[in-house]
Sequence to fold (130 residues):
Amino acid sequence: ALGIASGAMELAIAYSKEREAFGKPIHQHQAIAFKLADLATDVEASRLLCLKAAWLKDQKRNFDKESAMAKFYASKTAMKVATEAVQVHGGYGFVKEYHVERLMRDAKITQIYEGTSEIQQIVISRAILK
Fold:
């Protein structure tokens, strides 16, 4: 999920630097710049959650809650970032020549396999409500 989110963000950033609207690259428009900033923040938060879960595992400590949080948040982030990357690409976001359309489809499955988002929420809630 984190890889999908990172890849979609990179594609959105690259496209926003190439595509022009109203005489300037679209990343110079505040709406796009703010969208990219929001996505970058979510991707970094996902990365940190994954790293914390991995660190706890390396330390041979319990990491059930943190791994569930990492999977839940990274999956949600992947879907959000991929969807927004399609939006940044406009009509081209649905064309197979642009990789973002596949990333959006791939992002959805991360919310389902290896434990649905709802299962991750059960694991998290049980851990915090002990």
About this structure: Residues 2-128 form a domain with the Butyryl-CoA Dehydrogenase, subunit A; domain 3 fold (CATH 1.20.140.10). Residues 20 and 26 are 5 Å apart (CA to CA).
